């Protein structure tokens, strides 16, 4: 579904990603883990087009994303739930969800999707009329996820959904994601610092360090890998 | 009439006049609110966009010969409304060629979000428009007169012979202003276009992730803001003569109105403009006319000290 080949990207003249290749098959849960500054968010931004690539290719269902304007990409079925949530704080929760549903597919399925989002994340229904900026961090993360789901995406990209949340809330968000994935059969690409959880649930994992893929394999194998255990799992 | 009655009558008269002029100021402020309040673009040329709108309405009226087939009453208002799409196009073009280079996603990461560049750029545009208009149209005062400009409706007598008169041209202008604002408020509040404009202004990066063309949204808002202020200018011109430098007098009123109403609130900007109209007219009861603009700023400072977020301002954190 998503095929990234030999991608280099960065800011101004400074490359952050070097010759990076990542693949996501339809229906897969793929996790990308790695320390701060490894280029995980930059990778997502390059896919979405807010960071310009320097070389390589990004194909989504065979289509070259680099030829498309950033704002055209979500309409293909890519939902990007950005790092730090980035909700529209002066819009209500419901309006935030409506913005997700601006894509063609999102508009078509809106009534159905909204009902489904509310059943997964009931807190959004309770808060529907409230300004998103007034919510707690965990609730804002739900808004960001709900907003991504509202576009009826084929691929859901989640950038550190646990960032800045209390461990219990982060666990809750993770469980919700699992539930949503099971119900909707979504393809998910996850970037996460909570390495154990991220690899636990992944069909495939990548370990990113200083902009390069240093390890890849299925989740279980990576989790058992000595280097991963030492560096990230503290074992 | 007793002394008290005269005071009551002149107060009522000032309130009536203040509401009428306030509605037009309100419309003017709403135009700036689209650009400065919502999009956070500092535009010093807003008053001069209004001036261009006034001349556009004037030339639409005279060159198309509207009064000859629409009559002297309806003609001027049609001319004002015809100028609106023209100024929409003008605003669109100014944004496409100049403003986009100093706004939006390009400058989101810069210090001050590109405000320094906006300041200099729009100041430059203002100077070019003012002096360009001076060369093209000359310095003489012109106005868009209608027979209504010197006609009034008398309300009264009530309470032992009190009466208030309402200038008909201003009354019509105020009504048109209110209709436009209600329509605009509905568009911004309830339509997908309006919501996506607000989203693009709130968080441009996230808006892109939703599939909103942020550059186009900003351009739409800018053009809409230009057209609205220009329409207010045209409505004002049915009663006030104008000249190429008229923008300077009003750009300050507009910023005061937007800040009074609460930055980011379109309805707030309308009430801000209304408040300024009322203060301006009421001040003439006790103060000489020359001081009416000074009164506006005393009032402005008071509000800013007592309620810094403005009438309708929200303290919502912008991410």
From TrEMBL, chain A:
Keywords: Amino-acid transport, ATP-binding, Nucleotide-binding, Transport
One Gene Ontology MF term: ATP binding
Domain ABC transporter, residue spans: 2-235
GO BP: L-amino acid transport
Cross-referenced Pfam families: ABC_tran (PF00005)
InterPro entries for the chain: AAA+_ATPase, ABC_transporter-like_ATP-bd, ABC_transporter-like_CS, BCAA_Transport_ATP-bd_LivF, P-loop_NTPase
PROSITE patterns attached to this UniProt entry: ABC_TRANSPORTER_1, ABC_TRANSPORTER_2
Classification via Gene3D superfamilies: P-loop containing nucleotide triphosphate hydrolases
Family note: Belongs to the ABC transporter superfamily.
Record-given protein name: High-affinity branched-chain amino acid transport ATP-binding protein LivF
Organism: Roseovarius halotolerans
Taxonomic placement: Bacteria, Pseudomonadati, Pseudomonadota, Alphaproteobacteria, Rhodobacterales
Gene (UniProt): livF_1
From TrEMBL, chain B:
Protein name per UniProt: High-affinity branched-chain amino acid transport system permease protein LivH
Species annotation: Roseovarius halotolerans
Membrane-crossing segments per the record: 12-37, 49-70, 76-95, 116-139, 169-188, 220-240, 252-279, 291-312
GO BP: any one term: amino acid transport
InterPro entries, per the entry: ABC_transp_permease (IPR001851), BCAA_transport_permease (IPR052157)
One of the record's GO molecular function terms: transmembrane transporter activity
Membrane topology: Multi-pass membrane protein
Subcellular location: Cell membrane
Keywords: Amino-acid transport, Cell membrane, Membrane, Transmembrane, Transmembrane helix, Transport
Main location: membrane
Protein family per UniProt: Belongs to the binding-protein-dependent transport system permease family. LivHM subfamily.
Listed GO CC annotations: plasma membrane
The keyword Transmembrane helix is assigned to this record: yes
Gene from which this protein is expressed: livH_1
């Amino acid at each position: 579904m998503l095929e990234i080949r030999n991608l280099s990207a960065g800011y101004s003249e400074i490359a952050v990603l070097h010759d990076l290749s990542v693949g996501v098959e339809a229906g897969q849960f793929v996790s990308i883990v790695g320390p701060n500054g490894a280029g995980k968010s930059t990778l997502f931004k390059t896919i979405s087009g807010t960071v310009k690539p320097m070389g390589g290719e990004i194909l989504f269902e065979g289509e070259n994303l680099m030829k498309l304007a950033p704002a055209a990409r979500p309409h293909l079925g890519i939902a990007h739930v950005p790092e730090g949530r980035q909700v529209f704080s002066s819009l209500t929760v419901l309006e935030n969800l409506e913005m997700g549903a601006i894509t063609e597919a999102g508009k078509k399925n809106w009534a159905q999707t909204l009902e489904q989002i509310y059943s997964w994340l009931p807190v959004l229904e309770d808060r529907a009329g409230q300004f998103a900026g007034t919510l707690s961090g965990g609730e804002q993360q739900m808004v960001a996820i709900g907003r991504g789901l509202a576009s009826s995406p084929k691929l859901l990209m989640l950038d550190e959904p646990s960032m800045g949340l209390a461990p219990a809330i982060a666990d809750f968000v993770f469980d919700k994601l699992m539930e949503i994935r099971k119900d909707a059969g979504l393809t998910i690409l996850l970037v996460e610092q909570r390495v154990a959880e991220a690899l636990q649930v992944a069909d495939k994992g990548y370990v990113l360090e200083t902009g390069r893929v240093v390890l890849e394999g299925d989740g279980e194998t990576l989790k058992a890998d000595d280097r991963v255990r030492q560096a990230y799992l503290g074992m | 009439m007793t002394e008290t009655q005269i005071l009551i009558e002149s107060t009522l008269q000032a309130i009536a006049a203040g509401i009428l002029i306030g509605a037009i100021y309100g419309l003017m402020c709403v135009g700036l609110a689209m650009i400065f309040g919502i999009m956070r673009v500092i535009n010093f040329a807003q008053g001069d966009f209004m001036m261009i709108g006034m001349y556009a309405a004037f030339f639409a009226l005279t060159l198309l010969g509207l009064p000859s087939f629409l009559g002297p009453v309806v003609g001027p208002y049609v001319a004002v409304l015809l100028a609106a799409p023209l100024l929409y196009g003008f605003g669109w073009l100014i944004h496409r060629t100049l403003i986009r280079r100093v706004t939006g996603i390009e400058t989101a990461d810069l210090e001050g979000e590109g405000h320094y560049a906006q300041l200099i750029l729009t100041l430059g545009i203002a100077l070019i428009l003012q002096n360009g208009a001076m060369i093209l149209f000359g310095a003489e005062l012109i106005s868009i007169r209608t027979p209504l400009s010197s006609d009034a409706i008398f309300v009264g007598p009530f309470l032992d012979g009190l009466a208030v008169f309402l200038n008909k041209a201003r009354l019509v202008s105020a009504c048109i202003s209110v209709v436009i604002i209600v329509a605009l408020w509905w568009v911004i509040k309830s339509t997908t276009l309006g919501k996506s404009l607000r989203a693009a202004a709130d968080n441009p990066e996230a808006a892109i992730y939703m599939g909103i063309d942020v550059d186009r949204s900003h351009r739409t808002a800018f053009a809409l803001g230009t057209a609205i202020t220009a329409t207010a200018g045209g409505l004002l011109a049915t009663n006030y003569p104008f000249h190429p430098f008229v923008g300077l007098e009003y750009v300050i009123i507009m910023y005061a109105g937007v800040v009074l109403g609460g930055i980011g609130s379109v309805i707030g900007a309308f009430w801000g403009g209304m408040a300024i109209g009322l203060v301006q007219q009421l001040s003439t009861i006790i103060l000489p006319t020359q001081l009416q603009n000074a009164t506006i700023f005393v009032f402005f400072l008071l509000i800013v000290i007592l309620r810094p977020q403005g009438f309708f301002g929200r303290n919502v954190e912008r991410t």
